[in-house]
Specification:
mainly alpha
Amino acid sequence: LLRSESPAVRAAAADALAESPGALDAIVDAAGRDPGLFGAAVKATVASQPTAASYRVVERLSAPSEEAKKAGLMQIAAELTAADLLQIASRKGTTPELREAMLGRLTEHGAGLRHTPHIEDPAALSAAIMLLAESRLDLRRPDLALVALDALPTTPATALDPERVRHTRVVALLWSNRITQAAELDAPADAWLDGLERAVDEPHARA
């Protein structure tokens, strides 16, 4: 039925199979020939515990519109583990806006766990949240960068460079005019210069 000459029959068949175990490859293959099945490919991918690899497969498919493609990919991203999210969001050319959209949920549910059962890798979770904080600075939102930094796991397995974390926090604090708190971190001069340069257009910088 996925090869039927009727678009309506193909769409109905793909939708009916989307949550069936083992149907993912057939639906994605059909969607490669028919952009109208993009939504079914997304649904099937979400139902199959998606990974960074399956995200990239759907990313290569055509969709009825650019808006439909963005929405579908975000549905898949919403089910990825932190490790898989990090693979996707850290790719060269990914905009800060897209990184924010993909990674923002990691700070919204405590440890960043999804509703579906999964054990997150603490190191990947930390790296993804750190990337989110830096992306929020790129978006000129130091207040939200601090929210991300406050959500970083504190377990020893996180393996983040403490100087990178301190630098980013000082930049966000200075940009937010929280100079006393920034001074308490005793950061090197380059962090201060970075923070003050970014804050130069803020009203408090002209006061």
